[in-house]
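Aim 2 progress update. The chain analyzed this quarter is reproduced below.
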Amino acid sequence: MQTPAHAEATFDAVYAAHYVVLVRLAYVTTGSRQVAEDVVQEVFIEWLRRIDDVREPVPYLRRAVVSRCTSWLRRRIVERRHSSADQGPPPLPPPDGTTTAVRAALTRLSHRQRSVVFLRYYLDLPVDEIAAALGCRPGTVRSLLHRSLSALQEHLDDE
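Predicted structure tokens:
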């Protein structure tokens, strides 16, 4: 068990080093900066409550962010089904010319595929760590990466 001062120092160090990256992961999954920040803050609060029980905080935090984002997306799907007004997704800030095609291609991927692509190519995580973050097997990650890259290539070739 950590002393309160050591736990606070650990929390502060991990928060400072990983908050922005975890928000980006959540944003890629949810498409909303506000939701992404809320999810990550909730995950950090939950980790702080359990700090003595979590041996490796960064994998725990990644997994928790992906899990909460998935739950948020499922709730949104149910809400949209029951909503009488058809509202489109919130508008994204205008990208520069070089990222427009890539961003459009990424939006065509499923949230799980976007998460895999982000974890692999933005965070440069190995397949085993991605599998731990998503709660699946490494073979599933490789399959998702392959399908995601094929879909991205197809969408980018069309444009």
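The radius of gyration is 17 Å. Residues 97 and 103 are 10 Å apart (CA to CA). These observations will guide the mutagenesis experiments scheduled for the next reporting period.
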